[in-house]
Specification:
This protein is mainly beta. The chain contains three helices and eight strands. Strands 1, 2, 3, 4, 5, 6, 7 and 8 form an eight-stranded mixed beta sheet that branches. A hairpin with a 2-residue loop joins strand 2 and strand 3. The longest helix has 8 residues. The radius of gyration is 14 Å and the shape is globular. It starts with a helix and ends with a strand.
Length: 143
């Protein structure tokens, strides 16, 4: 378990939720970035990570999806079978290092959005620009 996973596991804000979209129990945690609080799904399980936001929309229950990669990640995210545009934000040690803005949903062959980090945050497309979220900014877990 890396430091981010242990912080999440110890967070008093993290609650088990039963969610029809994911095969495993999904946790929710609040994170703060650019003075904005996001209630995010925390996706750790490889099956949940693979499923991501496919066929899902954000709601009053969650405004982001936070993907955790224990030893780090170098690769691609895409928006295959997504129903909403996404901002895909790569983070390393809580610091934003890459943002792909307003990535449109796609079917079939999809563009791949490259990055590295130990976490990826997906929020509604265009929101990062609207809120002034930029590379170099930090996110924090909020209890």
């Amino acid at each position: 378990m890396n430091s981010h996973e242990s912080q999440l596991a110890n967070s008093s804000e993290m609650n088990e939720v039963s969610n029809q979209y994911y095969p495993n129990p999904v946790n929710i945690i609040n994170i703060k970035c650019a003075n904005y609080l996001f209630k995010t799904l925390v996706l750790i399980d490889p099956l949940d990570i693979q499923e991501g936001m496919m066929g899902k929309a954000f709601s009053q229950h969650f405004q982001g999806a936070l993907f955790l990669f224990g030893d780090g990640f170098e690769g691609y995210f895409w928006t295959k079978n997504c129903i909403i545009p996404l901002d895909i934000i790569y983070l390393k040690n809580g610091k934003i290092n890459k943002i792909h803005h307003n990535c449109p949903p796609c079917l079939g062959e999809c563009r791949r959005y490259k990055g590295t980090g130990d976490m990826v945050l997906e929020i509604y497309g265009g929101l990062a620009n609207q809120l002034g979220i930029k590379p170099g900014m930090r996110i924090e877990l909020v209890a």
